């Protein structure tokens, strides 16, 4: 089966940026795009009151989606879903089995984190799946080469998704740097333990240069990751969403969620099985 990337679009700027980014990724992956627009027509949808939803009619939506698909030079499947985005995405994932779900991150700079309820976070809670979030500030379609993988030094597994993520890194010819953030200089996890937690997954296999390691001290792990991403001129940040990060906690208690909301570069979120 031809691999695919599932793109969520609402025709706003952030979605357009995400589509451009996903289109560039589709080339080396030899993947088609599945373009999904969700008509969020429930009165219970919290964003019905924010002005952030498309108000196109059903016919206009179908026409806009068709025009977007026709302007792309790679194979595209266009679909319209209804209701909660997380539910519509889960349905599309079950049918298309994409390598990644891709979506844009709008400008939330004027909204406190505690009030932000993003589509990505809702999806991670209800139907965890490898997800690429592209900030609205990312322009162009440059392929990511310098990848920063943030880990906590504990073992993790990616289940059935590991092959696709390993293939992505290999095809991109990525320079992978493993980042470990410690709360203080006295907290020490041996270098080999940190690197081995990644090696055991196979993510560092067959890359053009050996996997590197960087350590940083920060009171808050999310601040350390965001700081390292800027300092290293990183193209892509990869973070792990462990089950304990989302279940039973408010989203702003999660390191993953904070990085997702504030990163200036695309973030690839990998749900783990442990």
Can you put this structure into words, describing what you see?
The longest helix has 17 residues, at 13-29. The chain is an alpha/beta fold and 274 residues long. The protein is globular. Helix 2 links the parallel strand 2 (32-39) and strand 3 (76-82). The protein has two domains: 4-135, HUPs (Rossmann fold, 3-Layer(aba) Sandwich), CATH 3.40.50.620; 146-271, Rossmann fold (3-Layer(aba) Sandwich), CATH 3.40.50. Strands 3-2-1-4-5-10-9-6-7-8 form a ten-stranded mixed sheet, with helices on both faces. Helices cover 34% and strands 23% of the residues. It has nine helices and ten strands. The protein has helices at 13-29, 58-70, 85-96, 119-126, 162-172, 191-199, 221-231, 243-246, 255-262, and strands at residues 4-8, 32-39, 76-82, 100-105, 131-135, 146-151, 175-182, 212-217, 236-241, 267-271. The relative contact order is 0.15.
How would you sum up the global shape? globular
Oligomer: single chain
What is the residue-mean pLDDT, rounded to a whole number?
83
Number of DSSP helices?
9
How many runs of DSSP E, i.e. beta strands? 10
Task: Characterize the biggest β-sheet.
Answer: 10 strands, mixed
- CATH class category label of the largest domain: Alpha Beta
| pLDDT < 50 runs, ≥5 residues | 42-53, 247-252
CATH topology of the largest domain: Rossmann fold
Describe the secondary-structure layout.
Blueprint: E1 4-8, H1 13-29, E2 32-39, H2 58-70, E3 76-82, H3 85-96, E4 100-105, H4 119-126, E5 131-135, E6 146-151, H5 162-172, E7 175-182, H6 191-199, E8 212-217, H7 221-231, E9 236-241, H8 243-246, H9 255-262, E10 267-271
Parallel strand pairs: 1-2, 1-4, 2-3, 4-5, 6-7, 6-9, 7-8, 9-10
Antiparallel strand pairs: 5-10
